[in-house]
Amino acid sequence: MTTQDATGEAGTATRDTRRGFDRQAALALLIPEPDSYLIVAGLGNAVFDMSRLTGGAPFCYPLDGAMGAAVSLGLGIALAQPDQRVLVVTGDGELLMNLGALATVAAADPPNLSILCLDNRRYGLTGGQPTHTAAGADIRKAGAALGLRHTSRPQDEAQLRAAAAVLRAAPSAALVVVDVTAVNSAPCAVDRDGDACRVRFLAHAVRAAT
Amino acid sequence: MTMAETGWQGDCYRELRARGVRHFCYVPDSGHAALITAARLDPDAVALGLAAEQEGVAVIAGLHLGGGKGVLLMQSSGVGNCVNYLSLIKHGRFPFLALVTMRGEFGEQNPWQYPMGQATEAVLRAMGVITLRADAAADAAVTVAAACDMADRGGQAVAVLLGQRLLGAKAF
Asked: What ipTM was reported for this prediction?
C-alpha cells in the first residue's frame, strides 16, 4: 500500500497521479464487513469498487446515474432504517456535484449514516480530467465547515483502520475522505437494472430490520 | 398549525399522514408553510429541510429503499433543479410523490417566475412524472390523497401542482 505525502497540497496533487492509497487495498481496510451495512455506491469507479467488494449483493444499491444523488439517497435510507448503519461510498466528482447535500446531512444528523469519499482528484471514467480537489478543494474541510461533527482524512494504514471504526460506529453522521491513486477501478460486472436492485435492496433492508 | 387545523392545507396533511407519509422533505414556499409547520409539530413526523430540491428526489427514493414513505414539497422553480435526479425515479421505477406550489402562471407579477413556471408540467411529464392539478380549495385534499395512492399503491411517480388560483398570486 502506498501512502500519500501528508504535506501534498494542490501544487503537487494536480500532477502526481500516484499520490494516495491503492483504492482496493484501502477499501479492504475501511470496509472489512460490507454486509454489516446498507450501502449506496455513487456512480463511476465507486460502483465498480463496491460491486466487486459486495459481489452484487442485495444490500448494495449501485447508483450508476443521477450524478450527485448518492449522499441524499443514503440519507433517505438512514432516516427510514434508523437501526441499521448506512454507508455511502462515492467519489470526489460525484460528491462535488451536490455539496449542499452534506449540509442537509449535517442538519438532520442521522446517527447511522457514514459517507466515504474516495478522492482521486479527477473524473476517472471520462478521461481523467481534474476535479476541483486537484486545485485544492478539500472535501473533508468542507464537510466539517458544513456542520458534520465526525470527519477525517486518513494518512496512513493505522489511520485507515481508525477510519473504519468511525464509519462503522460514529455516534453521528460521519465523513471520511480517502486520497486514492488515479488508477481506475478495474471494470467488473455491475447490475444496471435499477428497478431489480431497488426490489432486492428493499426486501433486504426490511428483512434485516426485523 | 396542528393536526386539528382546518382548511385545505390541514386536510392535505391529514390525508398524507393517514396514508403513512412520515417524512416531509422541503425547500420552503409560503404555500407549503402550513404543511411544514404541521410536520415540525407532529411528534410522529419528520420535517427535513433541503439545501436544494433535487436532494429531495433522492431522499424520497432512499426512504423507499428503507421501507419508508416521504413527500417532496417545493416550488415550481425547484422542479427544474430535479430533472436529472428524476432519472433515478424513472429508471428504478421508484414510487414518488411531490407537491409543487406553482409560480409563473395565473396572476403572477414577477416576470422571472414565468420561464420555469410555464415549463414545470412539461418537464415533469418529460421525465415520466404524472401531474395532477388543484386550483380550488375543495379539490386540494382529494387530489393529494389520489396522488398519494397512485404513488404508494400504484407505484407511480406523481406530482400535484397547486395552482396560484388556489394559493394566491404573489407580488414578489
From this structure: 0.96
